[in-house]
Amino acid sequence: MKLNIEKIFKFVPYEEVEKYKNTAKKSNLALSKKEGKGNDYMGWVNLPSAITESELTDIELTVSKLAPKVEIVVTIGIGGSYLGSKAVIDALSDNFAQLKADRKNPLVLFAGQNISEDYLFELRQLLKNKEYALIVISKSGTTTEPALAFRFLKKDIEEKYGKEEAKSRIIAITDASKGALRTLATQEGYKTYVIPDDVGGRFSVLTPVGLLPIAFAGFNIRQLVAGAVNMEKETSHEVKFENNKAEMYAAARNALYNSGKQIEILVNYNPKLHFIAEWWKQLYGESEGKENKGTFPASVDFSSDLHSMGQYIQEGIRNLYETVISVEKVNNKQVIEKDADDLDGLNYLAGKRVDEVNKMAELGTQLAHIEGGVPNIKIEISEISEYTIGELLYFFEKACGISGAILDVNPFDQPGVEAYKNNMFALLGKKGYSI
Ligand code: PA5
Questions:
Q1: What residues make up the domain containing 288?
Q2: Are residues 262 and 118 in the same domain?
Q3: Is 286 a catalytic residue?
Q4: Model confidence at 103: pLDDT above 90
Q5: Residues 229-256: tens digit of each pLDDT
Q6: Using a 6 Å cutoff on CB, does residue 390 contact ligand 1?
Q7: pLDDT (tens digit per residue) in 382-420
Q8: Residue 102 has what pLDDT?
Q9: Is the predicted pLDDT of residue 78 greater than 90, yes or no?
Q10: Catalytic entry in 104, 128, 307, 333
Q11: Burial code of 169-195, b = ≥16 C-beta within 10 A, e = fewer?
Q12: Fewer beta carbons below 10 Å: N end or C end of the chain?
């Protein structure tokens, strides 16, 4: 993975980025020692290298026992208990995996990530005629959205298979001892995995929260972890600032923020990366948006959104910058052929790959947006694979920890999300809540 911040220097000179060198270095060192604001939630820092062989084997064994029996695995969870696995599975899957009958692995679907009655009804209808299993994930074990979905799906699966068989098709991932889901799992005798106390939801993709659904979808979790381990080394506090991608990205985005660029747009040119951006938005939004501070994380899918959001990015309020995830090599070759009539006028592209057109759209957009006043950070990955996605996830996590510390907030709490819950509970008449 390469990070290129040169295209911000027209707007924010390198000296402005370098100003954060000492704070970035200190914050990175503090993370490694588990010191500083939110230090009881820093377990993710050395998670990749701390994952044991037996933890990985256990996950693979669970999958190998259950996967041959099922067509669908429904993963129930929200926020950090949902977005990591969704992001990785979408990035690595065939765009049309859901429609392919020759799929070797179960289809991983999601529930409890919204409160839509239509979504729940349609999912339940679909599951009636399918062989399926459930993974229910909640660190706190008390989150309303997944708990509600699980209440329905637990009843359905028990009615379909009987209580005993249903039990063998339900896996719970939650706290080691606390919360309603732990109590329920113990009482029912489900297979369980633990979310470590010191790993918050949005940093939990490399625990069973992410790894189990990803393994069910048929992807190599060892390669994913290997990529993350490599990035753990590359972003270690021992690596000097100039070569340290996480410190550099964290410093660059703080320099941009303090120069008035308070919206960061994560850009992709490959629809497979759409949910990587959704995961990233949670990571940065929930970690930094507090105390009336923080860059607002947004995202676009190009070139699709060049035909919608492109106008604003080119000419709207100049308070934004772009961070582009650029994929060097695309595997599936599609060469444009010459057409005898050339009625569409595309013969000038004959002999080129579709990806070359995409790359020129990327370059052309970068030039236009910089010209229009939008600084550009580029994150280049060689291809989309388990290894490179593992690198990318850890890179963003490490940079987020450092960036939040530079901003001087606790990046690992989320006090603001309680406000809506309080009102919702009060409106629904839950005891002890009022508006
Ligand atoms: O990052 C976080 O902590 C949150 O987004 C949580 O992951 C989310 O609220 C779900 O919480 P839980 O896993 O406790 O159900």
A1: 2-37+237-408
A2: no
A3: yes
A4: no
A5: 999 999 999 999 999 999 999 999 999 9
A6: no
A7: 999 999 999 999 999 999 999 999 999 999 999 999 899
A8: 86
A9: yes
A10: 307
A11: bbbbbbbeeebebbebbeeeebbbbbb
A12: C
CA end-to-end span of the chain: 48
Within 13 A of 305's CA, how many CA atoms are on the CB side? 17
Contact 224, 214 (CB under 8 A): yes
Q: Are 175 and 280 found together in one domain? A: no
CA nearest neighbour of 123 among 93, 104, 148, 91: 148
Ligand 1, pocket-test mutation among 135, 137, 140, most atoms within 8 A of CB: 140
CATH number reported for the structural domain that contains residue 103 in this entry: 3.40.50.10490
Does ligand 1 come within 6 angstroms of the Cβ of 84?
A: no
Domain count, the chain: 2
Kindly give the number of the ligand 1 atom that is closest to the alpha carbon of 78: 10
181 C-alpha vs ligand 1 centroid, how far in Å? 13
Ligand 1 center to residue 335 CA distance, Å?
44
Nearest by Cα to 323 from 376, 282, 276: 376
Q: Which atom of ligand 1 is nearest to the CA of 77?
A: 15
Residue 423: inside a domain, yes or no?
no
